[in-house]
Design goal:
- The chain is about 20% helix and about 30% strand.
- It is an alpha+beta fold and about 210 residues long.
- It is globular, with a radius of gyration of 15 Å.
- This is DUF3558 domain-containing protein.
Length: about 210
């Protein structure tokens, strides 16, 4: 399966000028490294504040394919792993890992991108055609972003989350679905789960 997520992400970025909506501030206390956790606020605001990180986790020397352990890959039912680089104009050359799930009746792919050229605040600028929700991933701020208006009958079949790991850097995890099996909400829940797992591993390296 060729990565949909990298190319779909470009489509989200090229159309600017639309308003985003975000949930309120996530909690700032760090979660146990043993259990990936995500939380989100029910309040909404025009401007979301990114809270301080527990500590910076630089991505420069990290390997995106090493951020999910064998046990984590098995839990996510991943059947194929391939290292690559991001091909979009805005993130071109960023280290990327494609993780395919292919089972009876299921076909989707996770991507893990190590973005070292901009932080998550870019998703909250209001200049990208996405809806956003701010969550906490293992104590770090994460910004879920989906195509503007996605949800309900308008399922984009993909979801992304950028985790604020360091100044000007974000760990970005995406899921692109081919099988049309899951709702938009389920896809984003699966993306959050994978991001929590990747952050658990990254925190052990930092």
């Amino acid at each position: 399966m060729r990565s949909r997520a990298a190319f779909s992400l470009l489509a989200l970025l090229v159309v600017a000028g639309c308003t985003t909506s975000e949930a309120g501030n996530p909690r700032t206390s760090e979660s146990s490294a043993d259990v990936p956790t995500t939380t989100k606020s029910s309040s909404t605001s025009k401007t979301a504040t990114i809270p301080p990180r527990p500590k910076a986790l630089k991505l420069d020397s990290a390997d995106p394919c090493a951020l999910l352990t064998a046990a984590q890959r098995a839990e996510l039912r991943i059947t194929r792993v391939e290292a690559s680089t991001n091909g979009t104009d805005i993130y071109k050359g960023a280290k990327q890992c494609e993780l395919e799930v292919a089972a009876t009746g299921l076909a989707y792919e996770y991507t893990i991108n190590l973005i070292t050229t901009e932080g998550v605040e870019a998703w909250l600028s209001g200049k990208r055609r996405v809806d956003t929700t701010v969550v906490s991933v293992n104590g770090y701020a994460g910004v879920i972003h989906v195509l503007k208006g996605a949800g309900g009958a308008k399922n984009s079949h993909e979801c992304y989350i950028g985790v604020d790991v360091a100044d000007g850097q974000q760990l970005q995890v995406g899921l692109g679905e081919i099988s049309r099996t899951f709702s938009q909400e389920q896809i984003c829940q699966m993306t959050e789960q994978a991001a929590g797992m990747a952050m658990t591993t990254l925190q052990t390296l930092g």
